[in-house]
């Protein structure tokens, strides 16, 4: 069973929890906005279900509530950001703002971000870059939960990649994908609910294919496309953990278990201010023409029409914002439990 709550109510609840956990009001709002964004787009595994573990780590001191985030610019087109073990959304948004400002001067800027934490859906940050008239890539590494191609041991994270660009079409192009067959959060949520998962998602701890979400959570998730997804995950690890100067691969802290070890997540941003390119405002028109040509091509059997990356999520966000975000009863129970722990009003029954 599930219950629907208005976006405003859920956002206010999340802000109250994170403020009570120790974040200042602005940072509490940032973390809440990142989680609500994921639920609006239909990615519940990265949404409000993360409130308990985020808050728990902040209260325990595993994540610093009031970090001193430092931005250095060793060269005109490169930023290095030290997140000081702050909340991932807070660190990443600060880095994005600095990268956009630098791109206004430089045209293109890369930002390497160290000593951070889980930062939620990458589409939140890329969407903000698009709103600022930029093309952007965002990447993050993660604690090991995936095998590399040919292996059965968890040695690398699901290392998602997000890309987006403005177009003259109704919605921007916005790709947000894990390098695994599926985001591990979906397996975690499936395990909580006692669900089965599709074949090909994961191996159990003995390296055997499984459809049992609980067994999969104890085992490894698989890279998408075999060697191709594995290679992309390795590329992300180089651009995040290695380049940032933080931990990488098996040395990283686990979000759910290592409370004495900081996660030390690394992120990477690449931001292009399109107004500083040779195309300027023509880029969006040309991108819109590309979208029109692609979506105007003949659909295959079983498809009514062709959709672009991010289109389904944008439509879903509009629908969900109108009718409210539905949360399973077990998630509501978890949220009410963390509310009691930090001393704020529970989510309750009213939408």
Automatic annotation (TrEMBL):
<keyword id="KW-0560">Oxidoreductase</keyword>
<dbReference type="InterPro" id="IPR003767">
    <property type="entry name" value="Malate/L-lactate_DH-like"/>
</dbReference>
<comment type="similarity">
    <text>Belongs to the LDH2/MDH2 oxidoreductase family.</text>
</comment>
<dbReference type="Pfam" id="PF02615">
    <property type="entry name" value="Ldh_2"/>
</dbReference>
<dbReference type="InterPro" id="IPR043143">
    <property type="entry name" value="Mal/L-sulf/L-lact_DH-like_NADP"/>
</dbReference>
<dbReference type="GO" id="GO:0016491">
    <property type="term" value="F:oxidoreductase activity"/>
</dbReference>
<keyword id="KW-0732">Signal</keyword>
<protein>
    <recommendedName>
        <fullName>Ldh family oxidoreductase</fullName>
    </recommendedName>
</protein>
<dbReference type="InterPro" id="IPR036111">
    <property type="entry name" value="Mal/L-sulfo/L-lacto_DH-like_sf"/>
</dbReference>
<feature type="signal peptide">
    <location>
        <begin position="1"/>
        <end position="19"/>
    </location>
</feature>
<dbReference type="InterPro" id="IPR043144">
    <property type="entry name" value="Mal/L-sulf/L-lact_DH-like_ah"/>
</dbReference>
């Amino acid at each position: 069973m599930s219950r629907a709550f208005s976006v405003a109510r859920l956002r206010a609840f999340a802000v109250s929890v994170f403020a009570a956990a120790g974040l200042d009001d602005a940072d509490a709002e940032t973390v809440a906005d990142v989680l609500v964004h994921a639920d609006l787009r239909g990615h519940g595994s990265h949404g409000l279900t993360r409130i308990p573990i985020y808050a728990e780590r902040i209260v325990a001191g595993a994540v610093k509530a009031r970090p001193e985030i430092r931005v250095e610019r060793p060269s005109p087109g490169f930023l290095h950001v030290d997140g000081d073990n702050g909340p991932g959304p807070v660190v990443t948004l600060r880095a994005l703002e600095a990268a956009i400002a630098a791109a206004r001067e430089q045209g293109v800027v890369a930002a390497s971000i160290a000593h951070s934490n889980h930062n939620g859906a990458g589409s939140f940050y890329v969407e903000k870059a698009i709103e600022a008239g930029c093309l952007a890539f965002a990447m993050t590494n993660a604690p090991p939960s995936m095998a590399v191609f040919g292996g059965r041991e968890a040695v690398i994270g699901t290392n998602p990649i997000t890309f987006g660009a403005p177009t003259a079409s109704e919605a921007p192009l916005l790709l947000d994908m894990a390098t695994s067959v599926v985001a591990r959060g979906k397996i975690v949520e499936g395990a909580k609910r006692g669900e089965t998962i599709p074949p090909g998602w994961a191996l159990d701890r003995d390296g055997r294919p499984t459809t049992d979400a609980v067994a999969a959570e104890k085992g490894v998730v698989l890279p998408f496309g075999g060697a191709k997804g594995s290679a992309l995950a390795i590329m992300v690890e180089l651009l995040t953990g290695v380049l940032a100067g933080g931990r990488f691969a098996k040395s990283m802290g686990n979000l759910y278990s290592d409370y004495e070890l900081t996660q030390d997540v690394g992120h990477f941003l690449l931001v292009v201010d399109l107004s500083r390119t040779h195309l300027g405002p023509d880029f969006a028109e040309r991108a819109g023409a590309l979208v029109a040509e692609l979506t105007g091509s003949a659909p295959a059997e079983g498809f009514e029409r062709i959709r672009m990356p991010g289109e389904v999520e944008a439509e879903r966000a509009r629908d969900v914002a109108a009718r409210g975000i539905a949360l399973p009863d077990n998630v509501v129970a978890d949220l009410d439990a963390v509310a009691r722990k930090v001393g704020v009003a529970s989510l309750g029954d009213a939408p």
